[in-house]
Amino acid sequence: MEFRSLAPEEFDAWLDHVAHVFSGSRQYFSNHWYNDPWKDFEGIRVAVDAGKIVSTLRVFIRKMYLHGQPISVGGIGEVSTRHEYRKRGLATQLLKDSIQFMEDRNIAISMLHGNQRIYSGEGWESVPRYYAKKTLFAANQQVWKVRPVNFKDADEVSQLAALYHTYSQKFNGTFVRDDMKYWTDWVQTESPSLWVAQRHNRIDGYVSIRKRNGALGVKEFAVSEDLFTENGATDFFEVMLSDVIAQMGEVKLEVAYPAPIADGFNAPKVETYGSTMYRVIDTQAFPSNLQKELKTTLPDLLHSQAKELSQDIRSHHVFWQTDGF
User: Fold this and answer.
1) Closest of 106, 129, 97, 84 to residue 265, by C-alpha
2) Pairing between strand 269-280 and 109-113?
3) Cβ atoms of residues 56 and 14 within 8 Å
4) Please, which of 113, 133, 194, 261 could form a disulfide with 149 given CB 3.0 to 4.6 Å?
5) Is the pTM of the predicted complex or chain greater than 0.90?
């Protein structure tokens, strides 16, 4: 059994592998590769038996905000082993291989979505995410023009990126999006239902949504600093979503959204949603003023926030589903 990085000429075979194991769309995994401006064949780790890919995982190279500062992160995704090769420790060996890869790249921290014992056994620790649920009623309003985004308008996308940076750095775990191709390729593909609120030719905020089983899920949200300082953007969030619901032809919908935004911890329902797991890779890759914070536990580090950005809420840990891998 050979453990190594994927060779470029093996990419089609790798796509066949992940599509087979996940019984999913080959296009989904292809999109995750071609729409990623930070893609790296070295980050695709494979176990190969007699020339055949039998197990794999991918390290997504990203940066994330932590206490208002960007740090390097390796996202572990697309972990998959063919059925006939399971229970042989291949995924565990690939996780060890990925840790070495990230250490060689001086990546500060690794993250993944899941809570399986295989990950905790290799040092990843669970940090819960909290979601609020609240029923909003349809209501048109006149202050903002609420409409679908135009990803072909470069100025509009630039406004989204600016709003995103200012707002998302208030949380921990949100990804840094400092390449416009990520917006025009990845975000457009992963958040096709993204709505903006415009006033006087200026976008004051936006929301990405997904409707499923008669409910609305918020994949991400951003708002201008002016509106945020009023009341955490709670009024704006509800007004905008109510307008979107009206345009969808609905009377009311239950909306699920990250509890740290829009006063969500005061919603009628607050639930733990899934789990994100983290593992410190290289303490020296953290900004010097954050290295002392590593003495605390990872959950405490992710739920807390720097004083200048603190909103005095239960948790500042957010991951936008648009960035899912």
Assistant:
1) 129
2) antiparallel
3) yes
4) 194
5) yes
Closest CA to 209 of 241, 177, 183: 241
Residue of 104, 70, 63, 61 lying closest to 287 (CA atoms): 70
Kindly give the residue spans of alpha helices, DSSP state H, lying in the chain.
11-22, 26-34, 90-104, 117-120, 154-168, 180-181, 188-190, 225-231, 234-247, 288-291, 298-303
* Two tokens, residue 199: 């006033």
Residues 57-100 pLDDT 10s: 999 999 999 999 999 999 999 999 999 999 999 999 999 999 99
Integer angstrom CA distances of residue 211 from 175, 188, 214, 215:
23, 17, 7, 6
DSSP 176: P
Q: Can you spell out the DSSP letters for 2-23?
A: EEEEPPGGGHHHHHHHHHHHHT
- CA dihedral (262, 307, 69, 169) in degrees, to 10, reads 10
Q: How far is CA 259 from CA 55, 126, 180, 197, 265, in A?
A: 36, 18, 28, 21, 5
Residue 155 CB burial class (10 angstroms; 0-12, 13-18, ≥19): exposed
First-to-last C-alpha distance (Å) of the chain: 27
* CA separation for the pair 63, 44 (Å, rounded): 18
Residue 181: both structure tokens together: 């191709």
Q: Which two tokens stand for residue 172?
A: 């921990």
Domains, the chain, in order of start with CATH, read: 2-129+274-323 (3.40.630.30), 131-271 (3.40.630.30)
pLDDT tens sequence across 114-166: 888 999 999 999 999 999 999 999 999 889 999 999 999 999 999 999 999 99
